[in-house]
Amino acid sequence: MKREEEEEEDDTVCLDESFFINDNYQLTTFTFGSQILQLLCLQSASTDFDLTGQLVWPGATLLNDYLSKNAEMLQGCSIIELGSGVGVTGILCGRFCRKVLLTDHNEEVLKILKKNIELHASSENSNCCAGLIAEKLEWGNSDQLNQILQRHPGGFDLILGADICFQQSSIPLLFDSVKQLLSIRGKGQSKFILAYVSRAKVMDAMVISEAILHELQINEVVGTRSVVGNLEGVIFEITPQ
């Protein structure tokens, strides 16, 4: 009996965490209005839920289409993007803004994000007018956010987020960070633009309720509700009450 237990123990396979990481990135071309971007990304989702930032989701397409049609709102702005993933939105904004800070909480995602920033910066046709910076930020982590705000004490004109509401537990933390960022400038001086894609009714209601609980005003941008990737998406503007 003891020998059988030993044999069972010998059969146990311990997998390194790298086994679950898919880094088969492909250079992919994206077109938003007159803007053409080439970025490294996955073509399908990783097996690890925490690595959703390795590919471009429908919400990012929705937000980039909206921003490319309203590029005047970006001119000369400073921007922080929450949940940047591979950087498709932040890098697009870099063509119009004076400063863009791209953030993500996952170290593996930050690696590909930084590679894409380097790729864009070295491109002969980058048309870049903003410094693109990538930093780690976990929503609800006041220490990390305070460190960012120490380096950017004036705050940001715009806060951007696209397709970042996947888990119910993350939504209150998202709005904790959004409220802190919006409070730096005060009412009317900054806003959060969220490209939201509906995947569950409970999530739809939670996004609205959390904004209200955080004393934020949330408004649907007229004309932005559309179907993206067989799902319904919409742009919200969120400001202090």
TrEMBL record:
<dbReference type="GO" id="GO:0008276">
    <property type="term" value="F:protein methyltransferase activity"/>
</dbReference>
<protein>
    <submittedName>
        <fullName>Putative Methyltransferase family protein isoform 3</fullName>
        <ecNumber>2.1.1.-</ecNumber>
    </submittedName>
</protein>
<dbReference type="GO" id="GO:0005634">
    <property type="term" value="C:nucleus"/>
</dbReference>
<keyword id="KW-0489">Methyltransferase</keyword>
<dbReference type="InterPro" id="IPR038899">
    <property type="entry name" value="METTL22"/>
</dbReference>
<dbReference type="InterPro" id="IPR019410">
    <property type="entry name" value="Methyltransf_16"/>
</dbReference>
<dbReference type="Pfam" id="PF10294">
    <property type="entry name" value="Methyltransf_16"/>
</dbReference>
<dbReference type="GO" id="GO:0032259">
    <property type="term" value="P:methylation"/>
</dbReference>
<keyword id="KW-0808">Transferase</keyword>
<dbReference type="InterPro" id="IPR029063">
    <property type="entry name" value="SAM-dependent_MTases_sf"/>
</dbReference>
